Amino acid sequence: MHTIWKGTISFGLVNIPIKLHAATEDKDVKLRNLHKDCHAPIKYARTCSECGKEIKNEEIVKAYEYTEGKYVVLDDEELQKLKKEQEDKAVEIIDFVMLDEIDPIYFDRTYYVSPNEGGSKAYALLRKTLSDTNKIGLAKITIRSKENLAAIRVYGNTIVMETLHFPDEVRDIKGVPNVPDETTIQDKELATAKTLVEHLTAEFDPTKYTDDYRLELLELIREKVEEDKGVTKQEQTNVIDLMEALEKSIEKAKPAKTTKKATKTTKKATPSKTTKKQTKKAT
């Protein structure tokens, strides 16, 4: 499993060298954009919105737009310094809380935590402590230049780290349009709804849920491949253009050749010097 971060988790005087690994993966079917005529992939160039010039990576700088049309440029050294300062910090558990106290809206991404060299015993100690107390640890961690709040908990026999949104990243529910106020609901309607919930209640089994669209899309792709309906990029050559140019050249040359032949024929028809002399004598 690929390691995306190395560091330490600390609680009290206990330090645990750890590695982070992505716990989930995106299985969306990636579709490419092709040119309809020649089936070649489409390229997207980075261009300047002002002059239209295509920009290379080394010509791009990071900036913050503090008011419309005005920016503060931040150079790579400044950004790298801040990033290094944050990444060098240990992941320190700030508080221990109950999992059900955190609303799911705060959860972002999940990472598996494995012990690095020499950290197995301390790792096992934290795992056992979290499991026995049925609590999770709250900490801060910087991953890919972004500081995150994180929940450290046990999943199976492994410690996992869930990154959380900060409170100011969760939008205010007051901004949600058309949410009804308290509405009078008939007792019979409520009883019927509760009965339906009881009938549909089951233990959570994640294996019974599938991404039907993805599976059907993959099946459609498989059928097209088996039916040999694949397309390949058409190689662009200048053979056709060259042939057209040659044919046009020949056409242009044809009238010139005809004129030459006519000239030669006229020369042959011209009387020779002997004939001219004979004509004079006859006269």
Structure write-up:
- This protein is of the alpha+beta class.
- The protein has 6 helices and 9 strands; from the N terminus they run ββββαββαβββαααα.
- The protein has helices spanning 76-87, 120-133, 187-200, 212-226, 239-269, 273-282, and strands at 5-11, 14-22, 62-67, 70-74, 91-97, 107-115, 136-143, 146-155, 158-164.
- The chain has a 7-stranded mixed barrel. Strands 3-4 form a two-stranded antiparallel ribbon.
- A hairpin with a 2-residue loop joins strand 7 and strand 8.
- The longest helix has 31 residues, at 239-269.
- It is extended, with a radius of gyration of 39 Å.
- Mean pLDDT is 82; it is low at 257-270 and 272-283.
Describe what is shown at a glance:
The chain has 283 residues and is an alpha+beta fold.
Helix and strand arrangement:
Elements: E1 5-11, E2 14-22, E3 62-67, E4 70-74, H1 76-87, E5 91-97, E6 107-115, H2 120-133, E7 136-143, E8 146-155, E9 158-164, H3 187-200, H4 212-226, H5 239-269, H6 273-282
What proportion strand? 15-25%
* Global structural class: alpha+beta
H/E element sequence: EEEEHEEHEEEHHHH
CA-CA gap between termini: 117 Å
Low-confidence stretches: 257-270, 272-283
List how many beta strands DSSP finds: 9
Q: Mind describing the biggest β-sheet?
A: 7 strands, mixed, barrel
Keywords:
single chain, 283 residues, seven-stranded mixed barrel, two-stranded antiparallel sheet, 34% helix, extended, disordered C terminus
